[in-house]
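Dear support,

Our group has been running a series of protein-ligand predictions, and this particular one with zinc ion is the one our PI (initials K.S.) wants archived with full inputs and outputs. We had some confusion internally about which version of the output was final, so please treat the block below as the authoritative record. The input we submitted was:
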Amino acid sequence: MESLPSFATLAPTEPDRAALQAAYAAATTLAADPATPPSEAVQAWEAACRPARQWQSWTRLRFHQDTSDPARRDGRKRADVLEGELKKLDDTLLEALLARADRAALDDAVSPAVTARWAATRAGYSPAIADDLLAEEELAAEYIALKAAARIDFRGTEHSLVTLAKETVAADRGTREAAERARWSWFDANRGTLDDQFDRLVALRDGMAKTLGLPDFVALGYLRMQRIDYGRADVAKFREQVRTRLVPLADRLMRERAADMDVELRLWDEAIPGKKGPTPLVCGMDGLGDAGIGAFDRLDPAISAFYRELYGQGWMDLGARPGKAGGGFCTWMHDVRSPYVFCSGNGSSSDAKTLVHEVGHAFQCWSSREAPVSTCVFPTYESAEIHSMGLEHLAWPVLDAFFGERADDFRRDHLVRGLRFIPYGVAVDHFQHLVYENPTATPAERHAMWAELERTYMPWRHYGDLPHVSDGGYWQIQRHIYARPFYYIDYTLAQTCALQLWASSLTDHAGTMERYHALCQKGGTLPFQALCASGGLTSPFADGCLDAVVTGAEEWLASH
Ligand code: ZN
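Confirmed final output from the archive:
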């Protein structure tokens, strides 16, 4: 495979605004010129935006690597400002490009799905809502800052919500319960602020939708997510399948866990896989990257070559450090056209899962790197997560590289979590439909909506007498609801597809890996349901989408 430069040699500079605007103006002129083939205009656009986008990705990555460094914090703010500028420049260019009479030639150059996604982006934007968009970002940032500033005393030690979360999965049950009590007491004390922030977000978002002439924010949310081949009726149908087909299985599995631990199931038991407890990461955090080599070498030659290059040239940052942000993500350096994998592992079993997940995203982007425009490299979110969650499941045969002889314990937990996640994710999405279809509901009415959804989708859930959550407040911990509206059903749709790949891999691993490669190479050039069809997957909106998954899971769990 093509070799990468050492990541350390990358030093992008902030784009000169006059040059950026001139390059965009030239590309926009080409886009508006009927004598210029659309592919040339698209190339000029790419040439204009790639260096700017790479600086933006690099600057945001550097901030995540050390959030305490004032220079990097300042860089991140400048990258956000650039985002607003690029949005406007892109919108003007897209207006010219999409107005062309030779639309078929444009479709040929970049794929009809990509032009449809651009059209959706334009339909969800207007300079008339530019100020509202900024206000929305500020409100979302207020929510994130409120949670980040939380200081909670727990057994004599000051905790953040992040460090306290570790205590909620402690081996000792009493510690877990006490940590949950401390966590939700903080939410309870801040309920008024959290309600008020969300109230203002709902009003703002509903107002933007109406300004754009849309019936409600659900419609705008779908446009923003570039959902070009399914709508809210399809999602409602998927919900129904989850409720009837998956909820009973998830409920039984959760109750079996409780029986294995000999407890009455409470919130603080849900993350514990049973009396054996979490599976230790035998390679340790320091050995995680090398263990990845051992795993991917045995899994697949192309992924192995890619991983060795990425890892060898420093395009990965795996361990947690003071000041480094949590979580995992895969970002893209547009000029070099390579992904970068960021994780923040602390030595727990989920670090291996996060590594494989992000490598799945990275490998898909790499597989699409020759695409004519960046939009073709990145699928929409529900599709992108098939590649990451899919690789998690396809990597099952080589998980002993991370977990040694207890790999089966991890596999069981991974499967149960994957199944149980779907009803939760559907509840998060259903909640947002109810909220934005009823924008004048009171905070108390919203909490009641959530409580009702929990009873429908998570009948196993029991909060004991914990504050806040007993009264319908759990949703307020879910960042997406505040900061990334309608970005959630995506994970459940992708997980449904990833579990279909898993079920198929149990009897034909080699054939399923081939299908996985083909899916990765499609990149962002197909809409979600067409991508499913191309990979032999049943669309989550079709009848029976969960049948093979539920049957496969029941059989595997019964025999392991
Ligand atoms: Zn992901």
